[in-house]
Write a structure and sequence with these properties.
Blueprint (H helix, E strand, L loop, with lengths): L1 H30 L5 E3 L5 E3 L8 H9 L5 H14 L5 H5 L7 H14 L5 H7 L5 H14 L5 H7 L5 H17 L7
Antiparallel strand pairs: 1-2
Helix pairs in contact: 2-3, 3-5, 5-7, 6-7, 7-9, 8-9
């Protein structure tokens, strides 16, 4: 009899914990800056990301990539990275030509998360960028893109003067060597 009551109590407790975690996750999303509510004409609150099949959020974020402000471009690039929409890859490539290192790094991050194959050549070129943050993000991007052609440039980047760039080059190189089952002679 006691075991039955104990099982019922455990079930109720588990259901309560599950309900709390769902509520907490939803509450955090509502406070997240990307999910800022905006009001539709029918007084229903919709979120910037919209429904999974909505095209509007991606299009509005792509338009923000043309902004003159670096902060706007960086935030738009990060939001596009999390949306994982392949339509954003081509507009994100334009960020790699920006003169500001934070914008270039954000573009590399977003393209890496989208696994945009067209970012391979620019990422390899950016391993030689004068800014260490850009070089580090280029090394990260090459690891995320997972192309065998990046092994040589990443191996060369292991001699970088910046520790973060060197670490990310090493990490990306390891990832590619495991992916392609390449053995290194001792």
């Amino acid at each position: 009899m006691r075991v039955g009551r104990l099982l019922v109590l455990m079930f109720i407790l588990a259901a309560f914990v599950l309900l709390l975690t769902r509520w907490e996750r939803q509450f955090k999303l509502q406070k997240h800056p990307v999910f800022r509510p905006r009001h539709a004409g029918d007084n229903l609150t919709t979120y910037v990301w919209g429904t999974p099949f909505s095209r509007e959020p991606v299009d509005s974020l792509i338009k923000r990539l043309d902004s003159d402000e670096a902060e706007v471009k960086v935030k738009a690039a990060h939001a596009l990275a999390h949306l994982c929409d392949p339509r954003a890859a081509t507009p994100l490539l334009s960020l790699l030509c920006d003169g500001r290192p934070e914008v270039v790094a954000a573009g590399l991050f977003a393209l890496a998360k989208l696994k945009a194959k067209q970012a391979l050549e620019p990422s390899i070129r950016l391993l030689e960028h004068p800014n260490p943050r850009v070089r580090a993000m280029a090394a990260f991007a090459l690891g995320e893109l997972g192309d065998k052609r990046a092994i040589g440039p990443l191996n060369k980047a292991l001699g970088d003067s910046d520790e973060a760039a060197k670490y990310l080059a090493k990490r990306s190189l390891k990832k590619l060597l495991v992916l392609y089952k390449v053995r290194i002679a001792p």
